[in-house]
């Protein structure tokens, strides 16, 4: 069934169940403070359910090297690093240096050693090409939605075989599922989902957490004899 076909849902999830799932892994005071900072500077961080999913993914693949596109005030970074190996390094890119300063406060409050976080201020598409091919276990994108297709191209280069790419806001405020919505950001995210679902080298899923988390694993490709 294609992403445009409707599935028959016999027991649609109710708002109370969605809220229960979002809060299933509770956030602590560190993340609450990071969200307060995000409100102050107009940043919308990943939801608690999305953050828990990121932590799970990082833990499941024993991630040591992770790239984050969109540092914000450190909410997603804390979730990621809590799932990574204790010697793992997070490389976080954001065009706003002030946001990264606030994120470093969050990381310090979380007790995360400064040497485990490499923050790079700059436009993602200027920074990502300078990172090492095939070196990373996970790439998380929560940056400029209009650049999501380009982030996928960079992620496929950066990831090792078996690595995971994840995109936040994959449902984009319920706009992606509505074909009548044709603004640039919605169309870009919708086309990204189709491209990932049809990519022979990726195993993908669209998780209905937060505003949608689109995840895909880069498959191992056997070398020809």
TrEMBL record:
The keyword Transmembrane helix does not apply. The keyword ATP-binding does not apply. Pfam families: Methyltransf_3. GO terms for biological process: methylation. It comes from the Bacteria. Keywords: Methyltransferase, S-adenosyl-L-methionine, Transferase. PROSITE patterns: SAM_OMT_I. Coiled coil: none annotated. GO terms for molecular function: O-methyltransferase activity; S-adenosylmethionine-dependent methyltransferase activity. PANTHER family: O-METHYLTRANSFERASE RV1220C-RELATED (PTHR10509:SF85), O-METHYLTRANSFERASE-RELATED (PTHR10509). This is Predicted O-methyltransferase YrrM.
């Amino acid at each position: 069934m294609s992403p445009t076909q409707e599935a028959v849902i016999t027991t649609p999830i109710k708002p109370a169940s969605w809220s229960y799932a979002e809060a299933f892994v509770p956030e602590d005071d560190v993340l609450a403070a990071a969200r307060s900072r995000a409100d102050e500077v107009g940043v919308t961080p990943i939801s608690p359910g999305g953050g828990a999913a990121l932590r799970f993914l990082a833990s499941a693949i024993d991630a040591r090297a992770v790239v984050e596109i969109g540092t914000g005030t450190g909410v997603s970074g804390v979730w990621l690093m809590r799932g990574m190996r204790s010697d793992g390094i997070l490389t976080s890119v954001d065009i706003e240096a002030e946001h990264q300063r606030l994120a470093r406060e969050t990381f310090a409050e979380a007790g995360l050693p400064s040497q485990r976080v490499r923050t790079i201020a700059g436009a993602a598409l200027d920074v990502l090409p300078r990172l090492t091919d095939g070196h990373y276990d996970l790439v998380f994108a929560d940056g400029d939605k209009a650049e999501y297709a380009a982030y996928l191209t960079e992620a496929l280069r950066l990831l090792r075989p078996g690595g995971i790419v994840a995109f936040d806001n994959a449902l984009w405020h319920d706009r992606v599922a509505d074909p009548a919505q044709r603004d640039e950001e919605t169309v870009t995210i919708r086309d990204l989902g189709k491209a990932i679902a049809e990519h022979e080298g990726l195993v993908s899923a669209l998780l209905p957490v937060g505003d949608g988390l689109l995840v895909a694993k880069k498959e191992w490709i056997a070398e020809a004899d």
